[in-house]
Design a protein that fits this description.
two-stranded antiparallel sheet, about 20% strand, alpha/beta, Carbamate kinase, nine-stranded mixed beta sheet, about 240 residues, 11 strands
Length: about 240
Amino acid sequence: MAKPIFKRVLLKLGGESLLGSREYGIDPKATQEVALEIKAVHETGTQVVVVIGAGNIFRGIAGAANGIDRSTADYMGMLATVMNCLALQDALEKCGVDTRVQSGLEMPAVAEPYIRRRALRHMDKGRVVILAAGTGAPYFTTDTGAALRALELNCDVILKATKVDGIYDKDPNKYPTATKYQHLTYMDALKERLEVMDTSAFALCMDNKLPIMVFNFFEPGNSKRAVMGETIGTIVK
């Protein structure tokens, strides 16, 4: 039987993955579909850490652009990620996957505080660890939080979930002649100004040689294919 090529992965999801057909909020059906994708990865034996954004509820940067103090807006965004993490936890538990939510902001009624060694123990015991509230500090995106936690937790790769099947030299929705990259170096991505992740997150990955796989999460089975070593998406390393 084939074995996964990664021992431990960090799956970075956008909050929009929980939207479904809604314009705002959390769609239970879409959340269940996300949970089933994660379950399929978990069942391969790969340990899974999940970081999810809050674009379906509130974006800190957008709030700041509309006049809210930037730190306040970022804390609001962190709280929104906690809501998404609890929804995802509920969906995973309902399909038989043990989970723990750990938060960068202390809120013991709903989540454990983020403690690195505890997170590692949870994964060793077969649990999916869902990380909420980013780094717990303003001015850092969930991309940066994901890169930081992936390094702290010794993940082999960041699986960057998107709606497109990899990185292109230009927007494939606008340009039919757009060329998809299968592999990229960090420097190539910088030179071509390809928006893989935000600058701080990308710099962390580049400095510490942490690979990033950008792939279409919404193609059923793609997450499992990624950890089993099939050629999907684009790898930046």
